[in-house]
Amino acid sequence: MQLEKIDRIKYLVELLNRASRAYYAQDQEIMDNREYDGLYDELAALEKETGVVLANSPTMNVGYEAVEELPKERHGAPMLSLDKTKSREELRDWLQGKAGVMSWKLDGLTVVLTYRGGRLEKAVTRGNGEIGEVVTNNARTFVNLPLVIGFQGELVVRGEAVIRYSDFERINQEIGDEEAKYKNPRNLCSGSVRQLNNEITAKRSVRFYAYTLVAAEGADFGNSVEAQFSFLQGQGFETVEHYLVTEEDLVDRVGFFEKKVDGYDIPSDGLVLTYEDIAYGLSLGRTAKFPRHSIAFKWADELRETTLREIEWSASRTGLINPVAIFEPVELEGTTVSRASVHNISILRGLRLGLGDRITVYKANMIIPQIAENLTGSDTVEIPRVCPVCGGSTQIRQVNDVQSLYCTNEKCPAKQIKAFTLFVSRDAMNIDGLSEATLEKFVDRGFIHEFADLFHLDRHEQEIVEMEGFGEKSYRNLMESIDRARNTTLPRVIYGLGIANIGAANAKMLCRYFGHDLKKLQEADVESLSAIEGVGEVIATAFVNYMQDPDNMQRLESLMQELQIEIPKVEEGSRILDGLSFVVTGSLVHFASRSDLKDMIESKGGKVTGSVTSKTTCLINNDLTSSSSKNKKARELEIPILSEADFLKRYGIEV
Fold it and tell me: What is residue 456's DSSP assignment?
């Protein structure tokens, strides 16, 4: 009955709005005043009865407001991406005999809504998954969003803001200049939702489709995702189209969606499959990147044929010069693509590329543009003998059968700018407000020559404030971010130095091995570093060469004078796993990912390896009866197999 009343509300809102547009904008009358008033009164009564009021209801008066900037807010829990597959069989096997809920994967902008006391209180974009932008005023103008709902407890719902193809085409038709027309609905939607003036958002006909109920205070859904969808519909939300599926009918249901996709008015780039059993899905935990309760299905790679225009040579902080293919723009997976990395000289020669060649392109993993095939194969691209940035000589070097091009000039500006870009990145010093373009300006003006100079940008306050794109507020924000970065950890510093082959994980491992003692790290030789599991001679040699270079030593000493290094506290008795070796496999319950469990073991002195040997203390696997190769090997060698709980209990570890 509630759903029928909400459907009636939606019908009346659409009808009354159509009547208003006809009367005020088109000088037409599709109903008389008495009929309009009667329907308006019916709508108001239904809204009062159900507790649901839509944003575009004639009974609402959504005020317009412009802001100077969109505030940012950290999500309560990281919003992870979904693992993906293109195989119907893999999708079916993923269910493991359980029921699932299949729905569209919409292609717009993810927004998280929070309601309290039955009213919309907050709307935040996904952002980078950890921090999003607050767009509450803009969300109030979404065409179909309920601003008032019957549920009075705290409600958090996640969904996709989209612009339908029909609305997208209408908006583009109103633009006379072909060059000014919007490229696709997804980009238009993202720009519309993140506007500083919500009057502009209101004109773009943005719609919201709920796909996940994050929290509903005090509500019980009987452990059912389908029941959550029904609840959301009962509160006035439009949800993504969804169906219950089993292993038996899953492939047919994928086919059903596939037949609809071409004519579907809402932008979609695939499907989502979620376990119907909420508790089971949550019990699977997550990896470092993906939750295990859901998986995305993507349609087969789109291939587009186009013409190669040129090869651009892009220099990096290590001196590596990567070839990048520039081609006639094509639409791929809903976005316009005109360039793709060719990665190295070996791949360039293998593709036999030449300007004017006809090539096919696709998106690897539905994200990264790649060249699939060269249909012409003229093989006429010449390898540059000089660096495109500094004009220094280039050299082709071969490592493990792969040929790559390098700039041999140690003072190449590209190396400098890229090095600063890495240094200020999130996993390194995490300094906001220093894009690569800004760093390039600072380098050009002589503000920064080495890492330590970043902590003395206050010497150039007046010049920075007067730079285009800056101002007093931007300058203050930058200085605050730099001051915060002074308090950091040694792994962040080591990673930020940009030593070849030293990523964030390797930096943590090396610092942990040497007790977070920089002096010991600097004095380490190739032999001692190579003996560390997971390092090897290549990484060890690069690290030692960097640390023994006199210029690098001087720059590092200057940098360390600007920093306060936080040394991890080692509690008494905390190294209870000293000398013990473990192997971790399977899904986890107590830890978000295997890497989290690995970090914990290593913090207590233990070691985690990838294979079971006679030196393994125990194999950690929640599936004790698994027939996996690791379980078989452990049984052969009579190595104990422990569940997470048993492992934690045996060693007295609390999490």
Answer: G
Active-site positions read: 105
- Could you tell me the sign of the dihedral formed by the alpha carbons of 437, 440, 444, 446, in that order? positive
Biggest CA-to-CA distance, the chain: 91
Q: C-alpha distances in angstroms, 215 versus 124, 125, 168, 230, 544?
A: 15, 17, 32, 14, 51
Residues of the chain with pLDDT under 70: 21-29, 33, 61-68, 176-181, 183, 288, 317, 334, 364-367, 400, 533-534, 569-574
Distance between start and end Cα atoms, the chain: 47
- CA dihedral over 407, 409, 410, 416, signed as positive or negative: negative
Q: Which amino acid is at 448?
A: I
**Within the chain, which residue ranges are assigned CATH 1.10.287.610?**
10-50
The torsion angles phi and psi of 608, rounded to 5 degrees, stand at -120, 125
Give whole-number Cα distances, 634 to 288, 289, 582, 630, in Å. Answer: 26, 28, 11, 6
Taking the C-alpha atoms of residue 421 and residue 456, their distance in angstroms, rounded to an integer, is: 17
**Cα 508 from Cα 489, distance rounded (Å):** 10
In CATH, 72-297 is 1.20.1050.10: no
Rounded distance between C-alpha atoms, residue 652 and residue 634, angstroms: 23
CA distances from 208 to 147, 357, 561, 651 (A): 12, 43, 51, 49
Quick one: tokens of 52? 């649901």
pLDDT at 394: 92
Residues paired with 85 in a beta bridge: 297
Question: In the 3-class helix/strand/coil scheme, how is 9-65 assigned residue by residue?
Answer: HHHHHHHHHHHHHHHHCCCCCCCCHHHHHHHHHHHHHHHHHHCCEECCCCCCCCCCC
Spatial distance between the Cα atoms of 263 and 303, rounded to a whole number of angstroms: 20
Q: Which CATH code of 2.40.50.140, 3.20.80.10, 3.10.100.10, 3.40.50.980 fits the domain covering 304-407?
A: 2.40.50.140
Q: Does domain 10-50 have CATH number 1.10.3720.10?
A: no
User: Which three-class secondary structure string do you get for 593-644?
Assistant: CHHHHHHHHHHCCCEEECCCCCCCCEEECCCCCCCCHHHHHHHHCCCCEECH
Q: What is the pairing mode between strands 320-332 and 304-315? A: antiparallel
Are the CB atoms for 428 and 492 separated by under 8 Å? yes
- What pLDDT does 23 receive? 55
| 469 burial level (CB within 10 Å; 0-12, 13-18, 19+) | exposed
CA 29 – CA 41 distance, rounded (Å): 19
Placement of tokens 């407001």 in the chain: 65
Give Cβ neighbours of residue 130 (< 8 Å, ≥ 6 apart): 74, 75, 78, 79
Spatial neighbors of 169 by CB under 8 A, at least 6 apart, are none
8 A C-beta contact, residue 496 and residue 425: yes
| Alpha-carbon gap, residue 293 to 273, rounded angstroms | 9
Residue whose entry in the numeric block shows the structure tokens 């593709």: 351
Fold adopted by 581-650: Rossmann fold (3.40.50)
